[in-house]
Amino acid sequence: MVTRTRNIVIVGGGTAGWLTAGIIAAKHRSRIPHDFTVTLVESPNVPIIGVGEGTWPTLRSTLKKIGVSETDFFRECDAAFKQGAKFARWTTGANDDAYYHPLMLPQGFAQLNLVPHWLASEGGDSFCDMVCAQGKICDDGLAPKAITTAEFEGAANYAYHLDAGKFAPFLQRHCCEKLGVRHVLADVRTVTQAQDGDIRSIVTEQAGEIEGDLFVDCTGFKSLLLGETLGVPFKECGDVLFCDTALAVQVPYEDESSPIASHTISTAQSAGWIWDIGLPTRRGTGHVFSSRHISDEQAERELRAYIGPAADGLSVRKISIRSGHRETFWKRNCVAVGLAAGFLEPLEASAIVLVELSAKLIAEQMPACREVMDIVASRFNATTSYRWGRIIDFLKLHYVLTKRTDTAFWRDNVMPETIPDRLQELLHLWRYQPPWVHDEFDRIEEVFPAASYQYVLYGMGFETEIEPAAIAADSRLAERVTRENRSNIDRLRGSLPRHRDLIKKIVEHGLHKI
Predict the structure, then answer these.
(1) Rg of the chain over CA atoms, in angstroms?
(2) Distance CA 279, CA 53 (A)
(3) Residue 513: how many CB atoms within 10 A of its CB?
(4) Is the model's pLDDT at 182 over the cut of 60?
(5) Which among 41, 126, 171, 358 is placed 20 to 30 Å from 223, CA to CA?
(6) Do residues 341 and 327 make contact, with C-beta atoms less than 8 angstroms apart?
(7) What pLDDT, in 10s, does the model give residues 194-207?
(8) To 5 degrees, how large is the angle CA 403–CA 297–CA 316?
(9) Which pTM was predicted?
(10) pLDDT score recorded for residue 297
(11) If pLDDT is split at 50, 70 and 90, which confidence band does 514 have?
């Protein structure tokens, strides 16, 4: 007898649980509640970690697909725009050492690779400024769109900064009121398994036994279903990414009119880095560091020195980071999403985008029945393992390009044995030819495409040997494209509103709906 997949049980809430619920329920909306149910079970007693306030542009399409209003999102989640990240003091440690990883592709990216032309130029512009307008937009404190721009559309590509503590309840209300998700507040006491090893049900204290056909583990670091019940091991990557602790603090603005940065600011320290994220009502700030290289006390001193007098009287929250992921993400009839699947330091805001991509894959490839679930699981595991590996590579890239030798942390990060083989191979390739779309960046929904590698490599002064003949063939096209970029910079700087001003208008008047 064929066992149809009809009842999806998500265990755990927070951003991971509710995003997953929303994405699955929206995809299968026509089947709810006739022959398909999505139930989310979360404890009323477990607090949300709620640190991940940075996102990727994918969240725009995700919110749109699940039917969320961008105006409501800004009003209820203390949201701001994010146009990329600025990395300070990563290369030399000097005060003027900084570069951008923007969210816009280089001008003319589909037509040609501008890296050789920038390397051969003598204009003095940074790579970002020569190929893209977004660095200048961020420098000026501008928003990526105007109030007349429709919801989820923009003059420049963008993501969001948000209050994770408000985002999960916002998603919960939308999922339950608009998408038919069943919400159960209950503590899980035991997990029962069938004779073949599948998870049969969860037994809760307040709501009794809840059975399901597919279980999604969103129980956070605990990984109650995939890790504890099904015994899937955790694969550490602390030998590649050293940071294992974070100190987080919320910093108030001096006054209500203080500028809001429209990018994440990541400032390197002696044994890690400090994130600085601007929301309308506060800044989310924290120090991610390696406890093998620095004490908690010294890390807190560096964090408070970065914040300045505004840090006086503020309490700091300590968060342990276990870098790595489960060896398998989908086993039998259980798949892990979010912290239950793994976690990496938030250097490039990869946590929420991994939730989105995983939930989308589950929703789109939802197994019709148990008889085909293992095939779907195998595909899911191959894709998800690839994504985790590539994110680890990309995060490590920021460390291996440093020229800093002032502390053991920076010296240890460039040791060859700490660099993944694939990244070492690519770095060797890029010594002679710059990153381009054919350098294995060929997977659908690559988290970090070739353009991202270009921004980091050449933002940090990586050197690539360029043959003059390789430049001559496309020189006229390159000149035209760079002129277009300069024109684009002038146009956007002259037309876009200040970041805080736009957010205020969105909250007061709303954005135009398509």
Answers:
(1) 23
(2) 9
(3) 10
(4) yes
(5) 171
(6) no
(7) 999 999 999 999 99
(8) 105
(9) 0.96
(10) 98
(11) low
Quick one: pLDDT at residue 445?
Answer: 60
Catalytic residues: 82
Strand order of the β-sheet with 324-326 is 234-236, 324-326, 342-343
> Per DSSP, what are the bridge partners of residue 219?
none
Helix (H, G, I), strand (E, B) or coil at 435: coil
User: Distances from the Cα of 178 to the Cαs of 54, 106, 181, in angstroms?
Assistant: 25, 38, 8
Residue with the two structure tokens 């640190």? 51
Average pLDDT over residues 259-277: 98
Kindly report the number of other CB atoms within 10 A of residue 472's CB atom.
10
Output DSSP code: residue 346: G
Rounded to whole angstroms, how far apart are CA atoms 157 and 137? 11
Interval 290-323: pLDDT, tens: 999 999 999 999 999 999 999 999 999 999 999 9
CB neighbour class for 144 (10 Å; exposed up to 12, middle 13-18, buried from 19): buried
Q: Kindly state the tokens that stand for 51.
A: 């640190």
Place of tokens 């583990």: 217
62 contacts 209 by C-beta, under 8 angstroms: no
**pLDDT tens-digit readout, 108-156:** 998 899 999 999 987 789 999 999 999 999 999 999 999 999 999 999 9
pLDDT at 121: 87
Q: Nearest Cα to 141, choosing from 260, 270, 280?
A: 260
Q: Which residues of 286-324 are buried (b: 16+ CB within 10 A; e: fewer)?
A: bbbbbbebbeeeebbebbbebbeeebeeeebeeeebebb
Using the Cα atoms of residue 168, residue 174, residue 179 and residue 183 in order, give the sign of their dihedral: positive
Contacts of 241 by beta carbon, 8 Å cutoff, 6+ apart: 323, 344, 345, 392, 395, 396, 399
Cα gap 384→377, rounded to integer Å:
10
Q: What's the first-to-final CA gap in the chain, in angstroms?
A: 46
**Given the DSSP bridges, would you call strands 84-88 and 264-268 parallel, antiparallel or unpaired?**
parallel
Residue in 352, 428, 350, 335 with CA at minimum distance from that of residue 392: 350
Look at the chain and count its residues: 514
How many alpha carbons lie under 13 Å from residue 173 in its C-beta half-sphere? 10
